[in-house]
Design goal:
This protein is α/β, with parallel strands linked by helices. The protein is built from four helices and twelve strands. The chain has a domain of 57 residues. It starts with 8 loop residues before the first helix and ends in a 20-residue tail after the last strand.
Length: 295
């Protein structure tokens, strides 16, 4: 006769059952329907010891938050022939790319002229914790939309969109940055972006924003109204060469812990309105060219 017991969150993480479900969308949809009921029975059965284990709804929901896949939709510039579309970080088994809904090998970085690509979808499995350089130098991408992003375990976004010089539409409304500590050079060189809304970003744990939007020379609107900089120590070059920005309100910035502000606003040649009313520079040791906005 079997028995039931509730599992802790840590126990669930190590269960083979959940690892096997990590990318099974059909089962996840089925379980999401079952979640609407008062009870949900997911049972693991071990023949050797004849043991049954029941998973609670609460624990299953926590599993979904941790292990749910991330789905990204991208669009390419009109002339895709010979363009580089590299999202290969050496972890091919965790990345799945679909051209026109047909799955392709992630290591194939070049598009063929006769493919007539209209839709590209990227799915990232739960194992990935770092987005460092994810779209690095993907110059053929003009549009990125994060359709599904419920996961909390991503902690690194260094240079995530660095060098995406054709990117002109970026939708981050579902973006989860709850545990991210590094955002330096995140949008570096995104020279076609005209607006960027980061008002939904949770930046409570971020400690480095150096060069975050550096080189975004077409950027005219930048919303950082809810950006939390309490733990940031490095803002060097964060707005460097944002030459189209006319106004920038940083009144919500807490710079108590910042030590490096060099080149922070350098070459922001269109900047007319800059609100630094709450800036604290007591701990800053490097301010070289930080306000050199006209050169």
């Amino acid at each position: 006769m079997g028995f039931f017991n509730e599992l802790s969150k840590d126990q669930i993480k190590s269960m083979d059952l959940f690892k096997n479900l990590k990318s099974n969308y059909f089962l996840q949809k089925l379980f999401n329907i079952l979640l609407k009921k008062k009870s949900l029975n997911i049972i693991k059965y071990n023949k050797a010891i004849k043991e049954r284990i029941k998973i609670s709804i609460k624990d299953y929901k926590e599993y979904l938050e941790i292990y749910s896949p991330i789905e990204i939709e991208i669009k390419l510039v009109d002339d895709t022939f010979g363009k580089f579309i590299n999202i290969n970080k050496g972890d091919e088994m965790y990345y799945h790319i679909y051209f026109n809904n047909n799955k392709k090998d992630i290591t194939r970085n070049y598009l063929n002229e006769n493919e007539n690509i209209k839709k590209v979808k990227i799915i990232i499995d739960y194992q990935i914790k770092s987005f460092e350089g994810l779209f690095s130098n993907c110059k053929c991408i003009k549009y990125i939309y994060f359709k599904k992003f419920n996961r909390n375990n991503i902690n690194n976004m260094i240079g995530m969109f660095i060098g995406c010089s054709s990117l002109n539409e970026l939708y981050l409304s579902n973006f989860n940055t709850n545990n991210v500590t590094r955002m330096d050079y995140m949008f570096y060189g995104c020279s076609s972006l005209k607006e960027l809304n980061l008002s939904n970003f949770n930046s409570n744990n971020v400690n480095n924003t150096a060069g975050m939007v550096c080189g975004c020379s077409s950027l005219k609107e930048l919303n950082l109204s809810n950006f939390n900089t309490n733990n940031v120590i490095n803002t060097a070059g964060i707005f460097y060469r944002c030459s189209s920005l006319k106004e920038l309100n940083l009144s919500n910035f807490n710079t108590n812990n910042v030590t490096n502000m060099e080149y922070m606003f350098s070459e922001c040649s269109s900047l007319k309105d800059l609100n630094l009313s709450n800036f604290n520079t007591n701990n800053v040791t490097n301010m070289e060219c930080s306000l050199n906005v006209l050169h």
